[in-house]
Amino acid sequence: MRSIYALVFAALLPTVALAEAATPAFGPVAAADVVFDDQLYVKRPIVVFADSPNDPNYIRQMELLAREYDQLAERDVILVTDTDPAARTEWRLKLRPRGFSLVIMDKDLRPVVRKPLPWDVREITHAIDKMPLRRTEILEQNPAGR
Questions:
Q1: b/e map of 108-131 (b: 16 or more CB within 10 Å)?
Q2: What are 3-60's pLDDT values in tens digits?
Q3: How many whole angstroms separate alpha carbon 103 and alpha carbon 80?
């Protein structure tokens, strides 16, 4: 009987590995590579703007975010970065940042929080969890009384 279990487990192992390989890893995406309107009700954008990738606030923010990517992925976040003001991406044109800026948006692409300084993931996730659409998602995943 144990050999049958081992055989079934061995047969299913490659499909599990393929499923894991098909899931893209969470990480920052350049603003030029993300279409603003394609994120509507799909992802919750967190946009990190800076005038240069060498901006100390930008570097600190990216370090803080990298510590807990799993918390952000759990909340359907897409992390968009824009460090080139000359490129004039649609993210820059719509959100109009000045220097370093952290913008947390809801799935309806409405900016909810704008910060001029880096924020910890704990503060970001707390702000996201207060958003009406996120609260609805939480209730759908974990309805009261179950």
A1: ebeebbebeebbebeebbebbeeb
A2: 554 544 555 555 444 444 445 588 999 999 999 999 999 999 999 999 999 999 999 9
A3: 10
Q: What is the DSSP code (8-state) at residue 35?
A: -
Going by DSSP bridges, is the β-strand pair 44-49/77-82 parallel, antiparallel, or unpaired?
parallel
Sheet with 44-49, edge to edge strand ranges: 29-30, 77-82, 44-49, 101-105, 111-115
Distance CA 94, CA 141 (A): 32
What are the φ/ψ torsions at residue 19 (nearest 5 degrees)? -65, -40
The phi and psi torsions of 139 (rounded to 5 degrees) equal -65, -35
**What integer is the mean pLDDT of 122-144?**
89
pTM for this structure? 0.78
Predicted local confidence at residue 66, as pLDDT: 95
- CA geometry: angle at 137 spanning 64 and 109, to 5°? 65
